[in-house]
């Protein structure tokens, strides 16, 4: 319980004034939307079941900011959840709403920045400020073995949250490196922009998950 308290901001977190103002404006405009810092999505078994953490950039305005669940309600979630189900990291049916039947298996999903930023672009200070939640989020998972970061910002903030220098752990799509006790995998973000421009294809994204699944299977074999 204590670990969870430190890792989750309040619905009215005031630490980034620009993002708090943006959130407030959207609460007026769309009172039925979530419009708050989006909580980490956990498997039903809870945080001690988590071996794999996915770190995205920030909620999309009409995606997670609307629905309150990471990668839910806009395009990025379609590719992500399809892939998670395909590799056994999730089960059920993804219907782009938080009350669908989708459940994570041994996996959690969070964002480097918990509040929606204007034009999907958080500034450096906001990324650094929200690391106050990313750091304890990573620490709350006592059985964590692998992290997948989606995009450069999520990668760099995760490296810093792990107490390392980003110069020592540069972002490269498809790469993985050991950072302390965890293996850090990196992918381009599964945004519509990246897939539309061909920067990230489904095959490239699936390839990263193949690596993660292989690594976790190896870890499991060594432990049993
Ligand atoms: S982005 Fe993070 S630190 Fe900034 S206001 Fe939202 S929850 Fe708070």
TrEMBL record:
State one molecular function term (GO).
uracil DNA N-glycosylase activity
| One GO-annotated biological process of the protein | base-excision repair
InterPro entries given for it? UDG_Type-4/5, UdgB-like, Uracil-DNA_glycosylase-like, Uracil-DNA_glycosylase-like_sf
Outline the extent of the Uracil-DNA glycosylase-like domain: 43-209
Alphabetically ordered keywords of this record: 4Fe-4S, DNA damage, DNA repair, Hydrolase, Iron, Iron-sulfur, Metal-binding
* Annotated family: Belongs to the uracil-DNA glycosylase (UDG) superfamily. Type 5 (UDGb) family.
* Protein name (Swiss-Prot/TrEMBL): Type-5 uracil-DNA glycosylase
């Amino acid at each position: 319980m204590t670990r969870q308290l430190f890792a989750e901001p309040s619905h009215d977190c005031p630490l980034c004034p620009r993002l708090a103002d943006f959130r407030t404006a959207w609460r007026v405009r769309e009172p039925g939307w979530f419009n708050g810092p989006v909580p980490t999505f956990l498997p039903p078994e809870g945080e001690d079941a988590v071996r794999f953490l996915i770190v995205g950039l920030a909620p999309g305005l009409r995606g997670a900011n609307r629905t309150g669940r990471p990668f839910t309600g806009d395009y990025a979630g379609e590719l992500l959840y399809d892939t998670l189900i395909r590799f056994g990291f999730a089960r059920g049916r993804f219907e782009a709403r938080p009350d669908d039947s989708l459940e994570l298996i041994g996996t959690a999903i969070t964002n480097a920045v918990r509040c929606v930023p204007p034009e999907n672009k958080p500034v450096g200070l906001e990324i650094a400020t929200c690391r106050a939640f990313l750091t304890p989020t990573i620490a709350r998972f006592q059985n964590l073995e692998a992290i997948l970061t989606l995009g450069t910002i999520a990668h760099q903030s995760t490296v810093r949250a792990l107490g390392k220098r980003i110069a020592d752990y540069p972002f490269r799509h498809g790469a993985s490196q050991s950072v302390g006790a965890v293996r850090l995998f990196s992918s381009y973000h599964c945004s519509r922009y990246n897939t539309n421009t061909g920067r990230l294809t489904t095959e490239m994204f699936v390839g990263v998950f193949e690596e993660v699944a292989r690594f976790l299977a190896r870890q499991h074999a060594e432990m049993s």
